[in-house]
Amino acid sequence: MFRCQISARGISALGVFLLGTACAPSQSTGVPSSGGAAGNSAGQSNSGGKPAAGTGGSPGEAGAGAGPLAGSAGQTAAGGSETYLTPSEPPQDEDGSSLWLRYPKVPLPGRLAEYRAALNHVVGGGDSATLEAARAELVKGLSGLTGAELPVADQPTGDGAVVLGTPKSSSLVQGLPLVDQLAKVGAEGYVIQATSVGGKAAIVVAANSDVGVLHGVFGLLRHVASHRTVNELMLSSAPKIQRRVLNHWDNMDGTVERGYAGKSLWGWSSLPGTISQRYLDYARANASIGVSGVVLNNVNANAQILTAQNLDKVAALATAFRPYGIAVYLSARFSAPIEIGGLNTADPSSSAVRQWWAGKADEIYGKIPDFGGFLVKANSEGQPGPQDYGRSHADGAKMLSDALTPHGGVVMWRAFVYSTEGSDRIRQAYDEFKPLDGSFGSNAIVQVKNGPLDFQPREPFSALLGAMPKTPLALELQITKEYLGADTHLAYLGTLFEEVLDADTHANGPGSTVARVVDGSAHGHTISAIAGVANVGMDADWSGSHFNQANWYAFGRMAWDPDLSAKDVADEWVRQTFSNDPLVLAPVTGMMMDSRQALVNYMTPLGLAHIMGTGHHYGPAPWVDDQSRADWNPVYYHRADQTGIGFDRSTSGSGAVEQYSAPVRDQLASRASVPDDLRLFFHHVGWDEKLSSSGRTLWDELVHRYSTGVDAVATFRNQWLSVEGRIDARRYREVTDFLKIQHYEARWWRDACLQYFASVSGHEIPSGYALPAHDLNFYKDLSAKCPSDATKPRCNDVYTGEPSPAVLP
Ligand code: GCV
């Protein structure tokens, strides 16, 4: 069961729903208290469930020091009696390029003294490239945090050593009684423990592999950067999903499909000769959050990536990433045997084609022994695929699986397919893939987008998740915000990720959450994967905005542990990226936690979807009805007419609800039980029908939600004002500017959509709500002008005056 909260401007409506949609798990409430600083970093305990920040701390410290102090003198420090003082002048400007790996000196004298006593030199670990990277990161991180350069030694030279290693690489680690703990953390996990080494107080970071040690180093740095105590420290963690993969939609010409953060990171023309620091920083960032693989190129793939010359470039990147535990994968174009192989077919039943792929796999593994595998978009949006030859998706995947299996690679075959036939686009992936369950090949994973449509601000979980018990399924999330305001809008996706991971598919009885389907445990699979469409590029801040970094961070952390709560992840990101000061932490995590629901409200409330402008996917255009395919038109999705609005997918409509397991199906199929957040996704509802949740008519509720969404952005702007002077001026100003743009554009979305729906329904804006600023034609005319640049979308015509409240005071 989930407790669902929809709140804006202090108004909240509580309801209890069966599904995870729009719902945070009930144990996760409120803004994290700084008192949790005594405890473990989020998710490190492996205790299952969602450990809240602030629990599980060392004796006598848990919860201490959480309360705010009056006045501007600052607030109590993490777990102690110390206060964060108001800086006399703002900290030095930052451009965001250090991400969450900033390591500023701890400003609390007591905590600093504790760290200097407990963490003052680094001991050994071994000499692999990975252990060297681990040591370098630890020295950099702890030197920054303690303000004193840490020496590296072979043996503890006194109290305060940080001892690194595996039982194999370090005799010191081998000599410690860690066998039981290490047995629980697998190949990539780690154990961090305050202990005694040779009679001297030390903190050991131990693992079964060098990469595990590196993950442990980042776990320790996260802990210290969050100003948590290291007294009696005991942390352990292991990933629950094996392949945690970023999908880059990067083209070989340096552009990035749906990229809003500048050009591609990959300098194809300067590779393999030049390995820039940027590549290494990218690898460090990924290792710090547990990402273990990277698909370098767009799923709308160019076969040229598979030529010998380009594979040498790919190999150079693989070599750079390898020490950080990151494997490279490639998107494979299905027709590559024709385009670069000289064959006249790509038919998977042709022995020549099968041999070509087997030979290509041999060639790749000759250059990149730990190559991860292929990602394939086939027979989708114009891409070639096995259906071009009358074969199935499974036939195509099996051919590639056969080529990769001898080398241990996997094929990740995407289920994002839809055709012009069929009455309801969202049914199609299920109808196509479910009958093929179990026939994709031994090393094949079917990769399914989180929702059945296409990364909308809110969708139900895809019915395919859980519906293919004989096939490992990967969850595909989109980190880049194609439909959620691109670079500018603050929309923290941790809550979206949590919503889908927690959704109970009931596929194998209650508790078959999407997380359990994806980690393989629901159906006993031994391979598992999760993918996130990357949001990074050459912009100084990597992600197009400071807050977009949080979505990269959240993907990695929740891919490592899908049971982490979005709130705890936001908490740890803010601590590392902006400040541990509770006067920063509370408002900023609060903004983040409310941000996605606010965006849903001002873009697509009540289950609306796909009503954005064609092509750029940025601004509103619910009126569009002239696209060549019916299912490219917003009118196809909202189905507004004089009687009502929404897509009837109940049993009397398209029947899409029948693709879900019985309890989910029944809940969604009934107008009485469908969550309001998905109401119009599954039902056509009369404009004047009353919603039992609010007592408002549907039309009034629509106006209300659009309006509270806009006003929530005004609230974010006010909350942000409160951190001025507590973080550096540059990032403060850049976020301020983007929040202002977001506010204008939220108003644009609201006014345009309400004008259009009013014109269809014949209803007027009820009293108590602001009238739209312009007539409908004004908004329709903007379609030709906005955004002026699809990679940095802006709509200058709506930036006039200050947006006034949408809910009238
Ligand atoms: C890579 C949506 C996006 C496309 C993307 C596609 C996909 O349609 O708009 O840019 O193509 O999804 O996921 O394949």
Strand order, sheet with most strands:
12-13-14-15-16-17-18-19
Mean pLDDT across the residues is 91
Tell how many strands the DSSP assignment holds: 21
Largest sheet: 8 strands, parallel, barrel
Bound molecules: 4-O-methyl-alpha-D-glucopyranuronic acid
Radius of gyration of CA atoms, rounded to a whole number: 26 Å
- Beta-sheet strand percentage? 5-15%
Shape: globular
Secondary structure class reads alpha/beta
Short description:
33% of the residues lie in helices and 11% in strands. The chain is of the alpha/beta class and 809 residues long.
Report on the structure:
With 809 residues, this protein is α/β, with parallel strands linked by helices. The strands form 5 sheets. An 8-stranded parallel β-barrel has the order 12-13-14-15-16-17-18-19. It is globular, with a radius of gyration of 26 Å. The protein starts with a strand and ends in a 24-residue tail after the last helix. Residues 1-41, 45-49 and 51-74 have low confidence and may be disordered. The protein binds 4-O-methyl-alpha-D-glucopyranuronic acid. 4-O-methyl-alpha-D-glucopyranuronic acid (GCV) is lined by residues 249, 257-258, 299-300, 377, 381, 416, 454, 482.
Question: How are the secondary structure elements laid out?
Answer:
Layout (H helix, E strand, L loop, with lengths): L1 E7 L2 E7 L5 E2 L50 E2 L6 E2 L24 H10 L2 E3 L5 H18 L5 E2 L7 E5 L5 H4 L4 H5 L6 E8 L2 E7 L3 H16 L8 E4 L5 E5 L29 H13 L3 E3 L12 H14 L5 E5 L4 H4 L11 H17 L5 E4 L16 H12 L5 E5 L13 H6 L10 E6 L23 E6 L15 H9 L11 H5 L10 E5 L14 H13 L5 H12 L4 H22 L30 H5 L5 E2 L16 H8 L9 H4 L2 E2 L11 H24 L7 H33 L14 H10 L24
Helix pairs in contact: 2-5, 9-10, 12-15, 14-15, 15-16, 16-20, 20-21
